[in-house]
Amino acid sequence: MTTLAVSSVLLVAVLLKRKLPIGWLTRFGAHLALSAMAIYALNYSGWITGLYIPLNPATIGAVTLLGLPGIALVAGLQWTLMT
Fold this sequence. Notes:
about 80% helix, membrane, BofA, transmembrane
């Protein structure tokens, strides 16, 4: 828990120190929303039968960072751990 708190504070410090433009925050938010919609669409479309990918910060974060291969990663991990 301490490691998470320290790393979060240091991440915020780095982001504030670099003075990034506001556009990166908008782009990141759009990627988060699109990732959540992609997982939602995959769950309710029936493309993968018998597999449900939960909408939580870990799965949305993996899909945000990795894109479509992130969905394959989460689905593969879930399938491996379920069988």
